[in-house]
Design a protein that fits this description.
homotetramer; alpha+beta; Urate Oxidase; 11-stranded mixed β-sheet; elongated; disordered C terminus
């Protein structure tokens, strides 16, 4: 068939009938295996969900979406600041764009040891790396989501016995100078609730975790501020955002608290 | 155009190239507004998600899927046993089938009053009606999902102070004789944890809810058995299934317990 | 017991050990029934998911979270710009805050008639109202998510027969002067893909919808620009954001395109 | 403190106040890294979500939930039939139970090569292993979820041009004799729609995939039957269940078809 032998039309490179530039054009919900460096222990393999995009000028009808996947294919398997920056430079070039955006989300596992028995089991944390790239400059953001336990200070103060507790999730995003480990952000979050949580706890650990949590009751506001304090004291971190959600055990809804801070300004973004 | 005026081909009624009967063919994730009867108080409007299916004999290539939607359109807006049975008879007939399946899932709201202040606010419960229809007979199942609070009995027994608590979800499905209200299943579930939960609690309520929960510590196993006991004592219920999931506040995973019971048999299904 | 009779401690109003102001403190995932006004046809009842928050100064330990729920309880059932603004003024006052944030998400149903047979069935659209309130001023944003069908222009141009099509979701947020109906945003979105989609289509409708879609192939970029064009031509809309995601049928990932525009500036936010 | 030095109470081993046996008691939503064997290529590391349970007799108040996690910790990292069976024997013994249940869900990646260019990229498939264990016997089930593309045969027959297509998900569960690879189930599913889907397609591939799909239009019923035919012809498979869901591009709801078959009976379960 004649049609098959002719060069195929490049529809995307044609003109757009509506001459508006697009902020981001790309792919999302694309899964792939990746390798992440582990603090002091080599690396671990995990599974990522990718979103990649570039800007599109008003004169082009479409982006060649397969080029994002080709760029991911070429990415060195080991995810790091350098390989991530190269990926973004690569998609900017492959798609002849001015700006690029990329985000990889993945569970990241750390062995966590129970406080009394020392029994350990991996805890999975939902992490992400996110970047905005323009003119050779990468604005790079690390993110972690860390479950903790909170004991309600109000409930503890007013009750003759007990206090309601629940799982809370501390989400942190941070920008920084130099190199920062996911482990550092996770450690700050784990210390910001009433107690860290664990996958494997024997009875003596459960006693310690519960009693420790009751010694340090924390509203969702307290957990957000404790994480913010830890992040503000970290010498490399120059911007962060904290959002804590507490799955209140006396309700079917959640409580939350959030703040963000640019440290060179010495105060919160809106303060 | 000639082609447009010709009668359109009925592809679905043609023969299947693979002569296998199908158990269920239908539509799912179809949203629609519905009206549900409320115990002693008229009715409430809510939003349902529908799944409807019939069997398909080996000789037919496909089902006419639009007929499910037409049947839903004809359904009297007020959802009840009778209208649901009519819907199922209708889809069986419209699709020339032997058997039909239907499930409607919807949030259902009940005003719940706080135990001390009496303040009230609607609590939304995820409910469902489910049916299997054949030869004019409907096997009808009601289902509810009810959040409660559980206090860990082990944690309470071994700790010098406190005990971890968390939100747990009690899911019940039940078959019964006569008429049964969603309210009856919800009430059984609300009484089966350490405490019911509420949307609106003032400080004096929070104190009472917490202390009440600490007076009645319950493992996920205890909550499942308490619900099962309540269901087994209900004179109309002839079969039920209970599944409780507790979102453990000292872990990032959940604990669960389940059982089902056919009451004419006087014991659990597997016992 | 003596403790019970003493006035209960107001822990939230006490000092915070970390003197950082919080951007937002509040509740989320709180479900409630609401009533929404329908263009030209009275109102409809639906089910909302609420997120409400205020800022918290550095000197206060916590917010009285139950006051958000009390404010929702007092809200006139009919959701409108005026009742939403009153809700936000109310939470600002109840919580002695400077700023408030609120968002209600809900499915909203419109009868959509098939293009040839005229058969109609309600289509549910995920909508939201969102507000930021400060000093008596409300920045109000309406949002809709509208499924459409897209036919790939590249696939259509290069294939001897056919072209891949898929469901795409057009998400619009808009700020505006005067009064704007959800219906207006939904109509713009429905016209921005290759074809609108419907719950109920008879065979003659399916033929028309498919052929119509094949006459108007649209990349995700085209759909985003078409929606942007419609929004930019609407006299009341002063800011909008469009994000289109296409669930590519030849892949297991999605393509997306987005832009935002401030119309007084006469160009896109980043352009 | 005296209490701390006393042996801690074993609450779980105490009597239950409600003497009902429980079908399943266990843990769920527990994440961990695992290693899965790959057909002909060693193994791959991925991330699993585990659900583990045992039965609980009426005389025991609770199960020692930490023992499930200890059993997972002891599990040889390489997931296989043998290690999975050992895990189940282990939890049965650790928890002094008669029966055990286990399910591990994980994304599993296979390089898939585009049909013309040969470009390859990993495709992630949601897979699971599931087991019911009693008296040393394991009933073992493999499961896969595979996205494909379907072109509507009715739309193709009645339209002057085009036909709607969409992504569909083929879910298979199978029990078998001997050893069966996930790859075998995935291959059957990939061949059962109008076309397999790929992460990376160049223009010549997109042309081929689309034209191939249009040559093989398939209702959701056809895809279910094609998969069933492939499974029924596989000599090792003795039971299977197929469920196909098609995300109809002309609707906002899905169509589905399902069947199950016990091959020794020579017909479907309900046929």
């Amino acid at each position: 068939m004649e049609k098959n032998n002719a060069p195929m039309q490049d529809v995307q490179s044609g003109p757009s009938s509506v001459a508006l530039p697009l902020d981001r054009v790309g792919v999302k919900d694309l899964r792939l295996p990746i390798t992440v460096r582990v603090k002091g222990r080599g690396e671990q393999q995990t599974v990522a969900d990718a979103e990649l995009a570039v800007d599109l000028p008003s004169k082009l009808k479409g982006a060649h979406m397969s080029r994002f996947v080709e760029a991911l294919k070429e990415m060195s398997h080991g995810l790091s600041y350098d390989t991530f920056k190269s990926l973004m430079a690569d998609i900017t070039e492959r798609l002849a764009a001015k700006r690029a955006y990329a985000r990889l989300r993945f569970p990241y596992f750390l062995e966590e040891s129970a406080p009394v028995s020392g029994s350990s089991f991996p805890m999975g944390y939902d992490c992400q790396v996110e970047g905005e790239y323009e003119d050779g400059h990468l604005r790079f953001t690390l993110g972690v989501a860390v479950p903790v336990m909170t004991v309600c200070p109000c409930s503890k103060a007013i009750c003759d016995e007990g206090a309601h507790s629940q799982r809370a999730i501390i989400r942190i995003k941070a920008r920084f100078t130099g190199f920062l480990w996911l482990e550092d952000l996770i450690a700050i979050a784990r210390n910001s609730g009433s107690s860290p949580v664990y996958a494997l706890l024997k009875r003596e650990d459960e006693k310690e975790v519960t009693e420790d949590a009751f010694r340090r009751p924390a509203f969702v506001e307290d957990a957000a501020r404790a994480a913010a304090l830890g992040l503000s004291e970290h010498p490399q971190i120059k911007w962060f955002e904290v959002r804590v959600e507490s799955q209140e055990s006396i309700h079917d809804h959640s409580a939350f608290a959030s703040l963000s801070m640019r440290k060179d300004a010495g105060k919160t973004n809106r303060g």
